[in-house]
Design goal:
Helix content: 25-40%
Number of strands: 7
Number of helices: 4
Low-confidence stretches: 1-20, 25-33
Number of domains: 1
CATH architecture: 2-Layer Sandwich
CATH superfamily: STAS domain
Largest sheet: 7 strands, mixed
Structural class: alpha/beta
Order of helices and strands: EEEEHEHEHEH
Radius of gyration: 14 Å
CATH class: Alpha Beta
Strand content: 25-35%
CATH topology: Transcription Regulator spoIIAA
Distance between the termini: 32 Å
Length: 146
C-alpha cells in the first residue's frame, strides 16, 4: 500500500502502512529506530487506534491523519485510542488528542482513551483534559455505551 506522504516538514519519515493497517513513524533518516507505531484494524466495526512509542511534535500529525481516516470510513466518528504502548507524550500529543476529539464532536462522535498509564493520567489531570479525554481501563469498556 502507499504511504501517507513524506514527513519533510516534521522531520519524520512516514514509511507507509502494512497490510494490517499498521504504520511506523520513523525518526530522521540517520536512525532506524521507530518513534511511533500506529496500528488500527480498518475492518473493525469499533475502531481502536493503538499507539506504541513516542507521541510528540514529529509524530502527532500522523496520529491525526490516521484518526481522521478512521472517522471518515464510518457513519459516526467513534474511536478509542489505546495508549498501553505509549511511553512518551508531550504537549503536541495532547493537542492532537484535543483536535481529534473536537473534530469527532462536530460529527456527533467522540474519542476516548484506554489503558493509560499513571504518568499519562497525571498529565491529563494536571492539564484539565481528563474530563474531556475520558479514559477507560480497556477498549471494550470505552465502547460499552454504544
Amino acid at each position: 500500500m502507499a504511504g501517507i506522504g513524506s514527513g519533510a516538514d516534521s522531520g519524520a519519515d512516514l514509511r507507509g502502512r502494512t497490510d494490517s493497517g499498521q504504520r511506523d513513524i520513523g525518526a530522521a533518516a540517520t536512525t532506524s529506530r521507530a518513534l511511533l507505531t500506529i496500528s488500527v484494524d480498518p475492518a473493525a466495526s469499533r475502531p481502536v487506534v493503538a499507539l506504541t512509542g513516542e507521541l510528540d511534535i514529529a509524530t502527532a500529525p500522523a496520529v491525526k491523519t490516521v484518526c481522521f481516516e478512521t472517522f471518515e470510513a464510518r457513519p459516526r466518528p467513534y474511536v478509542v485510542v489505546d495508549l498501553a504502548g505509549l511511553y512518551f507524550c508531550d504537549c503536541a500529543g495532547l493537542n492532537a488528542f484535543v483536535l481529534i476529539h473536537n473534530w469527532a464532536l462536530t460529527g456527533g462522535g467522540w474519542v476516548r482513551l484506554c489503558r493509560t498509564d499513571r504518568r499519562m493520567q497525571k498529565m491529563l489531570d494536571i492539564t484539565g483534559l481528563a474530563a474531556t479525554l475520558r479514559c477507560y481501563p480497556t477498549a471494550v469498556d470505552a465502547f460499552a455505551d454504544i
